Amino acid sequence: MTSPSFSGHAHQPHPHAPSPAEVPLRHDWALPEVRALYELPLLELVYRAQSVHRAVWKENKVQLCSLLSIKTGGCSEDCGYCPQAARYDTGVKAEKLMAVPEVLDAAKKAREAGATRFCMGAAWREVKDGPQFDQVLDMVRGVKSLGMEACCTLGMVTDSQAQRLKAAGLDAYNHNLDTSEQHYGEIITTRTYDDRLKTLERVRNAGIGVCCGGIIGLGESIDDRCQLLVTLANQAHHPESVPVNALVPVEGTPLQQNQRVDALDMVRTIAVARILMPASMVRLSAGRQQMSDEAQLLCMLAGANSVFFGEKLLTTGNPEFAQDMALFAKAGVKPLEPNVDRPLSQ
Ligand code: SAM
Ligand code: DTB
Ligand code: SF4
Question: How far apart (Å, rounded) are the C-alpha atoms in residues 223 and 34?
Answer without folding.
Answer: 9
